[in-house]
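Lab notebook, page 48
Experiment: co-folding of the full assembly
Goal: obtain a model of how the components sit together before planning crosslinking
Operator: M.T.
Materials (sequences as entered):
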Amino acid sequence: MLSYAECTARERLAHLLDAASFQEWLPPQDRLTSPHLQALGVPPAFDDGVVIGHARLDGRHVFAAAQEGAYLGGGVGEVHGAKLVGLLRRALRDRPCAVLLLLDSGGVRLHEANAGLIAVSEVMRALLDVRAAGIPTLVLIGGNNGCFGGMGIVAHCADHIILSDVGRLALSGPEVIEASRGVDEFDSRDRALVWRTTGGKHRWILGDCSHLVEDAVQAFRDATLSILNGADASRPVTAKSLENEHAQLRRRLALAPPDAPANPETEAVALWRQLGVPDAEHIPDLDVAALLDRFAHEGRQA
Amino acid sequence: MSMSWQTLAGRLFGPQHAITAEGDFLSGTACLDGRIITVLGTTGHAEVGLELALAQARVVLDTVARHPGRPLLLLIDTQGQRLRRREELLGLNRAMAHLGKAIDLARRQGHAVLGLVYDQALSGGFITSGLIADACDALPEAEIYVMRLPAMARITKLPESTLRELSQNNPVFAPGVVNYLRMGGVRRLWEGDPAEALRQALADLTPQDERARDGASRGGRRLAADIIQRVLDAA
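Observation: model returned without errors.
Model output:
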């Protein structure tokens, strides 16, 4: 079983998509690097940390992008962001069967923060354009950086999110919160706490992703195909869908009001219990199959 | 010296507006040249947490449901997203995306949506408000940046002194509305009479995202537009 987390961006694409079908646009040979890093003594990358192109997936023509988490934490800079925007605008023009975004990112690349922030907002708008055009957009998350910052917002602009149990999805990273608010607010080295707060299982229980999968490239491929073969591969944003989401988020907030006592040891389990999850305290010990099996019997309350 | 929202609202709409503050949350309506506008936003350098993100989304969704076509003005003063474990546990990224999608839906349904940074804008509080509007303008005395330097130094593992030096003169890194203007993130700075600036801003909104092109023509973000075009043209 090939671990998704341990693959590079190119390996993920190669194994997720039909064999040898991926064709890259603006490949490293083009040497498109960030002009903003030299002043900081940071070495450039010839793809600026993101791979874009098109391929076949079970025969379908799809567009795909994969962020390289090993390069500057998958951070979005000017060039990196523009490659993603270009891919999405091209999707709007060429209308592939789907757009897959393999995100592995801490968010905005702070070395070129302003350009990165604007770029992430351009990605959001371009992604929502593609979604509004009825082209299924899927975000896949399971790399070592998870999906944080602006990219954590981008993920929820897509039709579907596929998350592995080692994947993480949130806004502010634990380190940022700890640096700003202290270790008592968020101990970024407490891995179990980080996973209970931002990890794949927690997100799935809350209803924040379409699919929870094992850390395996094949599992991501299977989930992607199951979405594309399903009836709701495309889920356009409508006033009704947003009202439903609004009500879902309101219910969630009511379960954990701002003045409720916070306890990093118990708060996640307490929330799962309130959501009707049986034996909530054992959730962290379950593997994905056992978790899904339990919910197949009990139903996902969220 | 930045302008209070009350002063700004008075100069935009006169004393008759119906915008109110509830804590850090601004909402209401106002009238410009006989046209009713929905106004929403934040004040007091608000931390945008779950409640504030949803409160803003509620106003947008209500406007879309009840007042088709009514323009939306987003007044922005934020220190960014609320940095708390609770916000992450409950999914502030999704609440922010929800707000962003509500604004995006309003645009698609024909509402003019304008952002205005009148005091301070910072990353997470900004990306799903002004940066997802049809256009975002700013007052010249406003401030825009991404993250405080100590947190940035920790994340990038670069010395704070290096970052401090960079923040003096590097436009892609340094705070400031002029840098955002040059990069295309801010369309226009409002000099002179704010009411006239608002009138003009609402009159020439475009549904297309032209920020990369603006960044290139203004010299602050030279590569983005070219890269986007190269992807479109790639064989």
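Interpretation: Chain A has a mean pLDDT of 95.
Next step: discuss with group before ordering constructs.
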